[in-house]
Amino acid sequence: MSRPRFNTLAPALRAAFGRPMYRVALDAGSTCPNRDGAKGLGGCVYCTVEGSGTGALRTGAEIEAQLRDGLKRIARRKPAGGCIAYLQSYSNTYVERERLVEVLTPVRARIASGEVGCLSIATRPDTLPDWSLELLQEIAKDVPVWVELGLESANDQVLDDIQRYHTAEEFRVAVARCHAAGLETVGHAILGLPGDGREGAHRTAELLAEVGCAGVKVHNLMVLERTILAHWWREGRVDVLDHETYVQWLADFVERLAPEQVLHRITGDAPLEERLAPRWDVHKNAIRELLEAELEQRGTRQGSLVRA
After folding, report:
1. What structural domains and CATH numbers belong to the chain?
2. Is 123 within 8 Å of 148 (Cβ atoms)?
3. Is residue 299 left, alpha or beta, with left meaning phi > 0 and alpha meaning psi from -120 to 50?
């Protein structure tokens, strides 16, 4: 069997941990500076409140309960599997130091007991105070720590238009600071953002390769109910990619990543009842197969067009 033309997460996890690993998503009830008024209101134009968090701060006990339930699910369904504690919602380092200590305490207890083998924490590149990196650096002495940073686009104008309100340079600096602290990084990208285009997807992949994120999450732009983007879509101001076009752009993107980077995700996933567009009649596993076929047809693979 020929070697796959791009790197996916499951084999990388088996190689790193010696067994399958499964995420337990934890909602700490955090917020973001583009939602609470520090930089803007309403959040990113594509983001729903429910899709990214509750906004209600969770106590350490509540986070412990979420983690305990997740560990039970893994033990029941995947007895040989390990756990990645995933602080997923909003910007988890956009808090006071005492708050992050409270959030991390139950996770650290489960690390000490051997039940959690990795920590993944999502945040923004402009909300990483030094003390947060120091706390994460302490945890990284025991287990790998992934800092998931939203880039989305390498175009600063696009980032302003979608109400991200940080810059590509801030992303570059944040990744370097994480790496200096011994932390791994996972960069996020969205293909098909308004005003970005196919060339924008190229530049975003090139930046992710340049900074050396260990992992990459990429998906197509989705229009969800109860978002600013939904209003734009209804007004005819936003187009979304059909799945054939997305696969073409995704192949371009993958060709420009570094060969060793691991693709944690290559498609978006939202319930049909919440998703206005696109409404592809294609399973996410089919996108993976179509991407493999497209790269094979081109005679390329991940990293084929990466800049030296």
Report:
1. 9-298 (3.20.20.70)
2. yes
3. left
Nearest alpha carbon to residue 218 among 239, 237, 196, 238: 196
Rounded to whole angstroms, how far apart are CA atoms 15 and 32? Answer: 34
Confidence (pLDDT) at 52: 46
In this structure, what DSSP letter does residue 248 have?
Answer: H
CA-wise closest residue to 218 among 279, 280, 150: 150
Q: Which of 251, 265, 254, 270 is nearest to 303 (CA)?
A: 254
DSSP conformation class of 59: P
Cis peptide upstream of residue 278 (ω within 30 degrees of 0): yes
Buried b (16+ CB within 10 A) or exposed e, 159-182: beebbbbbbbebbbebbebbbebe
Cα distance between the two ends of the chain: 29
* Rg from Cα positions in the chain: 19
- Count of Cβ atoms closer than 10 Å to residue 297 Cβ: 9
Cβ atoms within 10 Å, residue 114: 11
How do residues 98-146 score in pLDDT, each as one tens digit? 999 999 999 999 999 999 999 999 999 999 999 999 999 999 999 999 9
- Grouping H, G, I as helix, E, B as strand and the rest as coil, residue 197 is helix
Q: Which two tokens stand for residue 3?
A: 């070697």
Q: Using one digit for the tens of pLDDT, what is the confidence trace for 177-224?
A: 999 999 999 999 999 999 999 999 999 999 999 999 999 999 999 999
